[in-house]
Amino acid sequence: MYNSKDNAGGKSDAKRALEEVTDDLCDVARNAGRKVRGALDCATDELTGVTDTVAAEIRNKPVQSSLIALAAGFLLGALFRR
Predict the structure, then answer these.
(1) Is the pLDDT of residue 3 over 90?
(2) Domain count along the chain
(3) How far apart are the C-alpha atoms of 6 and 76, rounded to whole Å?
(4) Radius of gyration over alpha carbons of the chain, in Å?
(5) Which ranges of 1-82 would DSSP assign to H, the alpha helix?
(6) How far apart (Å, rounded) are the C-alpha atoms in residues 64 and 42?
(7) Which of 31, 53, 64, 65 is 20 to 30 A distant from 37 in Cα terms?
(8) CA–CA gap between residue 59 and residue 37 (Å, rounded)
(9) Are 57 and 65 in contact (CB under 8 A)?
């Protein structure tokens, strides 16, 4: 037979289960965010290092750098023209 007390208990159990699942999902999302942030920070550090190295090479060898940029521009222009 149907008992309203059983139904109330079922609702609270379902609510608790939903809260647990929500908490678990929040934890997973939080951990994933931390991992992504760590990877992003690492990539940012690497990019900064590469940028500094390239800038130093351009300052040390301006003519060679200009010729490389000219050749790259010519190749890109030729590729995109087609």
Answers:
(1) no
(2) 1
(3) 72
(4) 29
(5) 4-60, 62-81
(6) 30
(7) 53
(8) 33
(9) yes
